[in-house]
Fold each of these.
Amino acid sequence: MNKTLATMAMSVPQGNIESYVTAIHSVPVLSPEDEHELASRYKNEGDLNAVRELILSHLRFVVHIARSYSGYGLPQADLIQEGNVGLMKAVKRFDPEVGVRLISFAVHWIKAEIHEFVLKNWRIVKVATTKAQRKLFFNLRSAKKSLNWLSNDEVKAVADDLGVSEIEVRRMESRLNSRDTAFDLPNDADEETSFAPAAYLESPENDPAQTLEQQNWENHHQQRLLNAMKTLDQRSQEILAARWLNEDNKATLQELAETYQVSAERIRQLEKNAMNKLKACMS
């Protein structure tokens, strides 16, 4: 059903919006009686011709609503198309027995589709995800009296009016005043004066493949060292651990001599022999 309804809306010419507007204004506006009859035919009989007439007669209202979002810098044709999608969803859900006109019911659906399109395409990174942020996004621009940053009193007034925190107002104002930056420089840009993240984020030392290879190599050597340590007697293992593996408190030859009740020279000899055995096992 959705695909069938989608084919009924007049497509928006990408190159000539005015021709589209002229065409849809040639479709007469329905009277309340005609609208009720067509909506009843669709609801009770599934009459798709009735749906077509309902949609075509309300396309002019979609254009009127879509033009109020022209300040976001998005193509007007795209805004109208999204609004048409909302109109079709509204027609599908409209109940003529409720006693309201279709356009009053459809305004919510038309704006909802346009809002979603604006939020997804206004910036590369989505600027509004929560309910409070969406409310701020579409109301903060109209609340500002000038191009300057909001004063403390204006921030408080906006926060109280929209039921959000002052911090959220400041954050959204900052997002609205920010601009997307291309990752790479354009071909005609001056490399000495232009900024591009690609020139600053590149680091050959942080190549994922090399990092993984290094980690695997280190793990391999560590495992070989542990296996080689197991070939030594208990005293030799303890001496090497105290002398080389304890980074926080490296033991001296004299301290180990006192622990094992031998001379420092004997500890040095045991350490040297243990190191030779390790090298032989790992070579």
Amino acid sequence: MIEGLFVGLLLALLTLLYLYLYRTYTFWTRRGVKQITPIPFFGSFLPVFLGLKNHGEVYHEIYYKYPDSDAVGYYQFLSPKLMIRNPALVKRVLISDFSSFRDNEIYTNTKVDPLMELNPFLCRGDTWKPARSTFVAGLTASKLKSYLPLMKDTLTHLDDFLASNLDKELEAKDFSNSFFMTLVSNTAYGVDANCFTDPNAAFRKMVELLSKTNWQKFHNVIIIFFLQSLKTWLGYSFAPKPMQDFGAKVMREVTETRVKTGTRRNDYIQCYLDRNNTVEEKVFELSNHAISFFIGGMETSSITASNAVYELALHQDYQDRLYQELKEAYAKTPDMDYDTLLGLPYLNQIFEETGRKNHVLYSLPKVCTKYSTFVIDGNEVDLFPGQLVMIPSVEIQMDAKYYPDPDVFDPERFNEENKSGRPEVTYMPFGEGPRICAGMQFGILQVKIFLCHLVYHYRILPTSRSAAKPSYSKHSYFVIPNHNQFVKLVRRNH
């Protein structure tokens, strides 16, 4: 009797589970959208969960499963998600219908991430716009021009480091890290640091927290970035608590010292210290921005810069052309001012092709915030608030339809003629639309300062261990090369 009841109950539960999974995993087919066959409970993410693939490899398979479709449905564990493939629909999500897709999928809980409350990428609803406005107040063109001398000061540390390492095999990501750690600490934190010479520098330890501890271990990455509800329930923080504590400590010390002494400095935090609010309000605001700046301004710029250095080492002809452009620019403007630096066309082509081929983020994950209807492969598909959509930015930028021979590094893709011949929204390393990366101009400026100085003063050479075919980490949300980017630098004779 009891055994019969138990078997009956078990069968009932299994039936309910089957019906639940069936309904969950037929979400897209019931709407007439082509979908990827899911694995129960994991959807398309079992290889990621097992550490066999990074999520970019999974997106690649989804993108090319139905190469002629406007969009493809798939499942992020138990959540239905729509990959938007058609650039016209991408434009709707990011630009023309922005009000219907204004939230990013990734968000944070202010209880466990109190110093991410003002992060313009993580904010949702009505809070993102004022948070973004506050963040970019210190990143206007006039402000960036005033930061330029501080940024250039970092170049002396770079030269000192390279002076004792010329003709030696160097890892591009390693010395790029040191450069941008030093620059960001100097410009954004108001702290003089030299991360080239001090292996125990606090900012170096912050980078290790960002890239080598639990925050980047792949199961934590999966929970933080792909299982939002579980992340909130478990109390996972987007930024490691030691990093938040360090940022708050530094900002308090800098704020209190400057307020007490009346010291002024042309850096990012000065414009916030000039606001008419209390010391505690200044500390809170600056602590928020400092953590955001470090995560978004240091690591992403370092990845981009090291990728550019590596590509230039492998393509000496492009490096020579860039060097000639720089020689002419330095002859006219020896101090390489702001307008000259940002107006160099071939440097910009190198930068943009690096952002196309060597990515920082695999995708732009969005959330539908208002009912919207898309025509997908001839069918009208309703999207409702809360529905997850994803822009596969990497795949679009590596699609041969828009960029022939996409694995080839070719700066000529970004001359004016070639750019004008491509569909809109097929290049988006910083995102696009109203929520385009808030620190984009700062990031572009600091990477160009680095590349400009490096190529003008040094020839970048490959070594016997330079790998022509890249591979990428399977355990990071960022697109981090899995191979060492070995190069050798030789001083130029002008």
